[in-house]
Amino acid sequence: MDKVLEKQLQNASLASRKMMHVTTVQKNQALQAISDALINHIDIIIEANEKDLEAAKNNGMSKAMMDRLLLNKERIEAIANDVLKLIDLDDPVGQIIREIQRPNGLLIKQVRVPMGVFGIIYESRPNVTVDIACLCIKSSNVCVLKGGKEAIHSNKILTYIMQDAMKNIMPDNTVQLIENTDRSIVTQLITANGYVDVVVPRGGAGLINHVVKNATVPVIETGAGNCHLYIDKAADMQKAIDISVNAKIQRPSVCNAIETILVHKDIAHAYLPKMVEAFAGRVEIRGDKITQSIISCKEATNEDYATEYDDYIVAIKVVDSIEEAIAHIYQYSTKHSEAIITEDPQAADLFMNSLDSACVYLNASTRFSDGGEFGFGAELGISTQKLHARGPLALLEMTSFQYKVYGNGQIRK
Fold first, then answer.
1. Is residue 204 predicted with pLDDT exceeding 80?
2. DSSP 47
3. Cis (ω within 30 of 0) for the bond into 269?
4. Between the CA of residue 4 and those of 25, 60, 180, what are the distances in Å?
5. What would the pLDDT profile of 7-52 be if each residue is shown by its tens digit?
6. Cross-strand partners of 100
7. How many CB atoms lie within 10 A of CB 103?
8. What is the pLDDT of residue 253?
9. Environment class of residue 345 by beta-carbon count within 10 Å: exposed (0-12), middle (13-18) or buried (19+)?
10. I want to staple 368 with a disulfide (CB 3.0 to 4.6 A). Which of 134, 304, 373, 387 is the partner?
11. Which tens digit of pLDDT belongs to each residue from 316-343?
12. Quick check: 380 pLDDT over 80?
């Protein structure tokens, strides 16, 4: 193992022991200090971020992905404000899930405890550095962060600011950043049994698949977002258009943006031209033959339907029925977020109760698949697996539990 990484992981393990004794007051003080420090250092954060943006531009990064990377005054202020929201949330650590009083006098308490050391691997979104660090602080966990090389300057300054802000409040090495951008470091991190308690990959399908297939440390899989919007024949047209625009265009590079729109044949001739008008040339449209007979667009392939674009591109398919739409979603979905637009209660019930994705929506944008929008504060990611957590991963999902058993000399007969 890389010597620098090994030392970081050793320090993280020691810090996780100390975190078990940190109080809620201390954690909230650290979060307040971090929020204040981010506001006080906006200029140097932007300066570091500009280095990453310049390198990304020179490397031909798309505009949508550049948007993921961007930190400006408004975004930094929003990040700092999100940190403050965590202060108001209940501390999950120490919460009693249930108590069991046994006939022999034993009192058994099931109590929430921190996971320990989180290894977080993510790509070009520097806000994740702050979100995850602060979630770990509030849940008494330690984090070892491995961000993408595209955001290395931003991640370094953000980590330094957080470390400096809480240095007299929290244990040393509570938040650490792996600065080595070599890809081999990822494999070393996800096989660091004995040091790392859980690994969470956040990014595209390539990164997530690599971690899932090669990790020996337990993994919480935060899925790629091949999200779908189905326009039912009983859809309200204005809702359909507004939600289509929001779910595709507001931030196309994030995992809860839609990539495919499925349209019932009975509403296709009314919806598709209005959709084109609403997209106003901002989105490249790829459609099946029926779609092409109604609007001008490129031909969609099976690969298009399987792709998370993270860009201003959308695939369209006209379907004969809601059952066909559901079947299509099962074939191509990453089980992240799906939505139906309809005023038909029976269609709504069928859709909402037939899909196996983490988040399923009726007449609302998939862009709400987010810890903050769910009222969880921030989020570690959107889990698309069923164990140990699903959907937005927040404070509760970042804890495990243990049984604390209180006796008075009992022995088992």
1. no
2. H
3. no
4. 32, 31, 9
5. 999 999 999 999 999 999 999 999 999 999 999 999 999 999 999 9
6. 108
7. 5
8. 86
9. exposed
10. 373
11. 999 999 999 999 999 999 999 999 999 9
12. yes
Amino acid at 139: S
Mean pLDDT of 86-112: 97
CA distance 103 to 398: 33
CA 76 remoteness from chain centre: 18
Token pair, residue 8, equals 């970081």
Give the number of residues written for the chain: 413
Nearest to 128 by CA among 71, 213, 166: 71
List of E strands, 127-281 = 142-146, 175-177, 198-202, 227-231, 258-264
Task: Report the percentage of the chain scoring pLDDT > 70.
Answer: 100
What distance in Å separates the CA atoms of residue 202 and residue 232, rounded to the nearest whole number? 32
State the chain's mean pLDDT as an integer: 95
* Residue 351, SS3 per DSSP: helix
Quickly count: other Cβ atoms within 10 Å of residue 243's Cβ. Answer: 24
pTM: 0.87
User: In whole angstroms, what is the distance from residue 132 CA to residue 145 CA?
Assistant: 9
| DSSP conformation class of 368 | G
Half-sphere exposure of 12 (CA within 13 A, CB side): 32
pLDDT of residue 388: 83
Q: Is 328 helix (H, G, I), strand (E, B) or coil?
A: helix
Q: Are 52 and 152 in contact (CB under 8 A)?
A: yes
Do the bridges between strand 175-177 and strand 142-146 make them parallel or antiparallel, or are there none, so unpaired? Answer: parallel
50: tokens are 């500009």
pLDDT of residue 372: 85
Going through 123-249 in order, the beta strands assigned E by DSSP cover 142-146, 175-177, 198-202, 227-231
**Helical H segments across 41-126, by residue range:** 42-58, 63-69, 73-88
Q: With contact defined as beta carbons under 8 Å apart, do 306 and 226 qualify?
A: yes
Place of tokens 């809620």: 24
Q: DSSP letters of 242-294?
A: HHHHHHHHS-TTSTTSEEEEEEEHHHHHHHHHHHHHHHTT-SEEEE-HHHHHH
